[in-house]
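User: Okay, second chain of the day. Same drill as before: sequence in, C-alpha cells out.
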Amino acid sequence: MSQQSHTQRLQALLFDQLDATTAQCLFDQLSEAQNQNPVLELMDELREISNKVQGEAVSALGEVARRGCLSSVVPWLDLGITLAQASGALGLRYFKESPTILGLFDEAHSRDKLLAEVLEFADGPLDSAPQCAYEWLKVLPQLAQEHSLDVIQQWASLGMELAGWNYVLGNEFFRESPAIAQAIPLETAKAWIGFGMKLMVQNSFGKPDYVGTLEFFRTSPNLFLEIS
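Assistant: Same drill. C-alpha cells below.
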C-alpha cells in the first residue's frame, strides 16, 4: 500500500472519531513526529481485536495530545493492545482512563520506560497479569515520585508473585502499593505479606475468606506510619 493510502486512511480514521480541529491537529503532530505509519498499524491491530476498542483509542488520542504526551503514543498503544487482547472491557477502561494517568508523569523519558515495564508485566504468564499490570499503572505516578525504577520493579514482582497465589490479593496489593511502599521497607515486605495471609479464615461454606487480609493491606500502612 502506498504512503498516500496510509496517510489517507489515518486521516479518515481521525476525522471519523474526532472533531475536525482536533483531528487535523493530531494528524499534523503525528506527521511531524513521523508516527503516522506506526500509529495506523497499531490501530489496525486494535480493530482486529474490537472496533469498539479501536474507537475508544482514537477518541483518547485527543486527550493524550492535550496532556502533552503524544510523544509516548507508540508505547501507549502497545500496552493498550496487550490489555485489550486479554479483555475487551479492560482495553476500553485503559483507553478511557490512561490519558489522565500519562499526564501525571513528569518526564517523557521516564513515562516511556515505565510504560515498557508495565507492558512486560502485562505480558507475563499469569492469567491475571494484564489486570494486575493495569492496577500497577494507575498508581505508578505516585510510586515514581518517591522510588527508583529498580525499587518499583521489585514491588511489582512481589505483587505478581502474590497474584499468582491469589488474584484478589494481588490486585489489592497493587492498588495499595504507594502506601505500602511508604510504610514498609522493601526487605520486610514478604514478612508483612506473610502476616497478612495469616488473617485468612474459612467461611461457613468452607471457602477462604480474605476480608481480614484485605483490610490489613488497606489499613496497616497508615498504622505503621503512626509509629515513631
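Strands lie at 201-202, 208-209.

User: Thanks, on to the next one.
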